[in-house]
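lol ok so funny story. i was supposed to be doing the assay writeup but got distracted and ended up predicting the structure for this chain instead. priorities right. anyway since i did it might as well share w the group, maybe its usefull for someone
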Amino acid sequence: MFSKKRKPKLDKDLSAMELAMTNILILKAIFAQLPIQELKISRAVCRLWNEVGFKELKDRVILSIGKICTFTDPLLINAKLTKYIGIRMESNRSCHEECSTGMNLIQLPPNVQQVVEEVRIQTSAEYLAAIIEYINNCAFPILDYISLKISGCNAYRLDLTSHQNRRTALLIKSIITQYPSTLLPTFLENCTNLEVLQFEKNTPPSLVKCSNLKFLSYSGVPVDMSVINRMLEQVGGSLVELELRNKLFSMNQRLTRTQFNPPRMPNLTTLTVFAAELYQLENVLSTKLLPRLKHLSLKPSTGSTFAVDNFLQNLYEFHNGIESLSYEASTQADVRQAVILFPNVKNIEVRFSSGAATNREMLEQYRNWDIQRAKVTFITMISSIQEMVVFLEAMSTWRGRKTLSLFSAPVVTFEKSGIDSSRTARRSFAGTFLFTEFGEMAKSAFLFCKSFQAVELFDFGTSDVVRREMEEFIAIEKLPIKFKSTS
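and the output, tada:
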């Protein structure tokens, strides 16, 4: 048995060990010895372990190659790590022109080819043919996932009909592209195992061959909603996540004549809609059409007067399955209605731009949800310490992990201009709210931040003396506060 005299030493040893477990260098050394799966589990211990573990995981999983014609990174490969290595190939116009013909591509050592499971390709369109031929010529015996991120001109074409190219095409499971409209139909015709598709500035192509598609993100301006309806009819049965990121301006009236009428999507769990006012979602958010929907994100189009409260009032069905809700609240948003319609929400992301009294009332309504994670942003609002106290005090009573971004109100100044000396307003955002002193009310506001995961204060100016006083207070109280600037 241990004597009483040794207990203080044990306590001291324990304290030293706890301190060591917060040392980044020590954590890196420990994490470097863990298998990948154990490293992933260790990241869940705390925020610091998560950050250090993420960096370690990234360094071990991805074997980075700067250009497709050079390979200068050391091959630090051993049996414990190689199973998880992927390769990221990048090319740019600074490469020698022989790169585009495949004459000067890197030759990976055999021990690397044997262990690669995933190839991530980020390239411009002119290099695609050479890269695909290069993959054909490598062994890669266990390669089962290729992702493409394509940029550049849309004038290039690609033949995927040969036996070798067709075999490689079946391994392509993710495509992200903007401009190459001539290439996209070719890929969609041949990459029949495609799981992820993100494209924009293209007319929606045929997705008939994409029966395994899980994630679809489309950003464009279709002629009418029937084009999107037709696209979803082809893949609605397999989709798990859908993003409609339409940027609509002058075509608003034309598009509203055609109704958004998607098919039943039995496996869809996540729906993100920009220009939400044009999709008439109150007629779509039905458990019959979307029986497994859990995550809903609503965004207005640029310059829109879309009001969430009007949208909520038009909903006619409870959505017990939705656990995550993201939206931009207007000044008249009826949060109580949202709580009634989506009673089981646990994760929220919301932006406010209303007055202090209204926001306090709104924030108190959120306590009716059993919130596990919340991300809240107040835009161009805070003009006094009193307002800050209102928001922080109201949010501090929420349950769960909370992050908050506060933007100070812009200062409007006037200048004389023109013959009639009319006034021209100019808005200044940087340092518009000034902490002239760090008094008791400001300290009280800061102390409410203890219950937050992170608090960002944008454009809150102060003198160097007051800033040092704040930083000392933040350090002593261990507050998660950071000052940032939008400029």
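The chain is about 30% helix and 25% strand. The mean pLDDT is 74.
back to the writeup now i swear
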